[in-house]
């Protein structure tokens, strides 16, 4: 199964390297879920923008998600390529092409994908050895790579998904167990030791924190590997989470660099934005653009729950009624037709789509959406989000306030950042954490959703202040990646450190040989 225009690395050429000792060579290993793969690849591209020779190792189907961006970077003169390995479908009993996680991945396939990744580990380690990189940059879900880097005598940088507040809060809860000191799942407790007084309930915590699961063990392995790593990279910026960046470094006793917003930094070209996270350019057509162009500035609500969302029919009905009742124009990204386990939901949404198209008040996008292009359109005034970190960073960059609807992972912590620390978010009232591939029991009612939309899209002082704060953060995000900005300086300092490490290693080797 070929991939058009795929640049597969020639290991012999890679091994020859550069005659210039100052040129760094990196291997990047992203994880196999879109929400992790996209920012990791963006950071790999960022390294290449700064003169690092980068090889991204991934599997065939995952490569198609980002390969067009790599091709464009190569055409721009950046030293970056993709090395593709075949996923061991037959060995683990999976159909060909199933090699990543999304909201439709059945539970029995989840374990098989992990099994496939385990089989690939030895192959990846051999590639690390053959390619002679100066450092590894790998996702947090590959804790074994810290030992692989140590065997090669090179630094391993870890990508930590989410923001500093989320991981600071999680560290605090793991350390002090405040959730065990309340009498019920709905009673609030204070998260100790943070720069702000933040409260949560037990029902908002991940299940693996409440009681030990297999995932608890994996999270411990990831944290141990982070502490043994050279340092961590976060897709955030100092002006957004500076107090928590400092707090996190002290709590973990590790080096860490904020280098965001990475999406805006590497995707400033319209073609990069158009197909980011989707290998099939132009899949949606541009009907959404024509529709948005017909709307006035800041008048449209963008509603998206990310690539891993999963809602039952009753929840879809509540969202639809809330959007219609709000009387604001909206774009709603929903799952592809035929993908839902809940057939009634698809039937309802298709009828709903006909109705809102006829009134010209709403536009539904089924499946993947060109989110970067949509968010930067002047007609978009606010976002309804699941508090996934990629969407948060993209919305902040666009200067948009958010209605917060956390579902799983670290999203309830992210809601605290948006609503209580930055004050650019309005909670819809979600109270129950659930696993990414489950419907959950909670149904947020249309009235609650409507209240949040009213604040976001309103003309009162609270709404205007929220928009001003969002705009100020957008300006700060743009400055962070410019020369002299916080993220730009962090990237420059990190690369200089890695070069110093490489030179010291070469000097030590030369001394040993004399």
From TrEMBL:
Q: Which InterPro entries match?
A: UDP_glucos_trans, UDP_glycos_trans_CS
- Keywords on record: Glycosyltransferase, Transferase
Q: Which PROSITE patterns match?
A: UDPGT
Q: Which Pfam families match?
A: UDPGT (PF00201)
Question: Per its UniProt entry, which superkingdom is the organism in?
Answer: Eukaryota
Recorded GO MF terms: glycosyltransferase activity
Where, by residue number, does the polypeptide cross the bilayer? none
EC assignment: the record states 2.4.1.-
Q: Which PANTHER family match?
A: GLYCOSYLTRANSFERASE
Q: Which family does it belong to?
A: Belongs to the UDP-glycosyltransferase family.
Could you identify this protein by its name? Glycosyltransferase
Q: What is the lineage of its organism?
A: Eukaryota, Viridiplantae, Streptophyta, Embryophyta, Tracheophyta
């Amino acid at each position: 199964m070929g991939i058009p225009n795929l640049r597969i690395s020639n290991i012999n050429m890679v091994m020859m390297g550069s005659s210039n000792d100052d040129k760094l060579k990196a291997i990047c290993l992203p994880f196999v879920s879109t929400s992790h793969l996209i920012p990791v690849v963006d950071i790999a591209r960022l390294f290449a923008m700064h003169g690092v020779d980068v090889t991204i190792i991934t599997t065939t189907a995952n490569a198609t998600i980002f390969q067009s961006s790599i091709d464009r970077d190569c055409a721009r003169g950046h030293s970056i390529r993709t090395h593709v390995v075949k996923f061991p479908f037959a060995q683990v009993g999976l159909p060909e092409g199933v090699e990543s996680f999304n909201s439709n991945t059945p539970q029995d396939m989840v374990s098989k994908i992990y099994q496939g990744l385990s089989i690939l580990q030895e192959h990846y380690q051999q590639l690390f050895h053959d390619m002679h990189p100066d450092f590894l940059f790998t996702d947090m879900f590959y804790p074994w790579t810290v030992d692989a880097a140590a065997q090669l005598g090179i630094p391993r940088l870890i990508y930590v998904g989410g923001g500093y507040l989320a991981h600071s809060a999680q560290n605090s809860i793991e350390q002090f167990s405040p959730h065990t000191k309340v009498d019920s799942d709905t009673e609030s407790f204070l998260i100790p030791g943070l720069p702000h007084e933040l409260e949560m309930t037990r029902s908002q915590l991940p299940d693996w924190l409440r009681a030990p699961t297999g995932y608890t063990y994996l999270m411990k392995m990831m944290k141990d590997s982070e502490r043994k790593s050279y340092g961590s990279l976060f897709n955030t910026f100092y002006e957004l989470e500076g107090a928590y960046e400092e707090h996190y470094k002290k709590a973990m006793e590790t080096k860490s660099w904020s280098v965001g917003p990475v999406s805006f930094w590497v995707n400033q070209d319209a073609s990069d934005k158009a197909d980011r996270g989707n290998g099939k350019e132009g899949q949606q057509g541009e009907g959404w653009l024509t529709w948005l162009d017909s709307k006035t500035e800041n008048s449209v609500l963008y509603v998206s729950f990310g690539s891993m969302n999963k809602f039952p029919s009753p929840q879809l009905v509540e969202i639809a009624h809330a959007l219609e009742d709000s009387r604001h124009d909206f774009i709603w990204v929903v799952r592809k037709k035929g993908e839902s386990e809940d057939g009634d939901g698809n039937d309802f949404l298709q009828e709903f789509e006909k109705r809102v198209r006829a009134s010209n008040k709403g536009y539904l996008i089924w499946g993947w959406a060109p989110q970067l292009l949509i968010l930067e359109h002047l007609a978009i005034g606010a976002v309804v989000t699941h508090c996934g970190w990629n969407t948060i960073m993209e919305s902040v960059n666009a200067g948009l306030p958010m209605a917060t609807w956390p579902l799983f992972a670290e999203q309830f912590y992210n809601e605290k950042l948006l609503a209580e620390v930055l004050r650019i978010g309005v909670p819809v009232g979600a109270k129950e954490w659930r696993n990414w591939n489950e419907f959950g029991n909670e149904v947020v009612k249309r009235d609650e959703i409507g209240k949040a939309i009213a604040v976001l899209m309103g003309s009162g002082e609270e709404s205007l202040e929220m928009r001003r704060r969002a705009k100020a953060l957008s300006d700060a995000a743009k400055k962070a990646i410019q020369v002299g900005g916080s993220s730009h300086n962090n990237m420059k300092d990190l690369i200089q450190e890695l070069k110093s490490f490489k030179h010291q290693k070469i000097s030590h080797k030369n001394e040993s040989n004399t």
